[in-house]
Amino acid sequence: MKQALYLDDLKVGDTFVSERYQLSTEKIKEFAREFDPQVFHCDEQLAEDTFFKGLAASGWHTASITMKLLTESLPFAHGIIGAGGEINWPLPTRPDDILYVKSTIKEIKPSKSKPNQALLLVESETLNQKNEVCQKLTAKLLSFRKSEG
Amino acid sequence: MKQALYLDDLKVGDTFVSERYQLSTEKIKEFAREFDPQVFHCDEQLAEDTFFKGLAASGWHTASITMKLLTESLPFAHGIIGAGGEINWPLPTRPDDILYVKSTIKEIKPSKSKPNQALLLVESETLNQKNEVCQKLTAKLLSFRKSEG
């Protein structure tokens, strides 16, 4: 268990690197069957003739795996609570991919109405085993001062 | 099966409304165990003392359910292929929620390099049974001319 980090402990430029996550054909299809049952996420053969030219994970699957890796790599006090953000998928993730996430605090915006809180802008890149960026997420995350706890 | 819509068939202001999706405590916990194992998504009792004051679905779970509803309500030819977008969660989704998605085409940007393609800006609001907006997603989606197919 990493030590919980409060707003007082954080500064712009702080970086966090996650563990690795092994994707697979079965995981891609299982997520797709439940949440994104499109042919390029569900069927290797039929996926060949689509935009993706082969089986690719749903972008929301990549986002969910990223969240899992963030819960293990961003030890923020009170948890990772996101108000929203901007997400981009420059490349799809594939069955053989081994993914990891690099996060950097880009900005710390103190709350005007709540002196014990701030909004962090955290940029998280999800990379594959070739270090290609498959997803870029800039999330607005809540951070709390120690006194608040 | 709805008729597939090509770029030629779409215009700014077109709207699409999805079916309803019933959330549940078990679905919230199941998603959370795999992708977002934080206490406010996993344990009703412990969630009471957190920011969310009760069990809430992961934002990425809400996003994934939204995607499922979009695959059923946006009949775009060649599927729903997203380059990215902006996502915000004004309210968490809860075990009893019945969710649906209203989508509107806000902008159509023809591709400069690929005359058969355009990027659609599609705003999708995910609402609960009280018609409260729980998620707002503005996605960049690919659209193709009929000739391309």
Automatic annotation (TrEMBL), chains A, B:
InterPro entries named in the record: HotDog_dom_sf (IPR029069), MaoC-like_dom (IPR002539), MCH/BMMD (IPR052342)
TM regions (residue ranges): none
Superkingdom per UniProt: Bacteria
Stretches of the chain forming a coiled coil according to its record: none
One Pfam short name: MaoC_dehydratas
CDD domains linked: YdeM
MaoC-like domain boundaries: 19-112
PANTHER family: BETA-METHYLMALYL-COA DEHYDRATASE (PTHR43664:SF1), MONOAMINE OXIDASE-RELATED (PTHR43664)
Protein name: MaoC family dehydratase
Organism the protein comes from: Sporosarcina soli
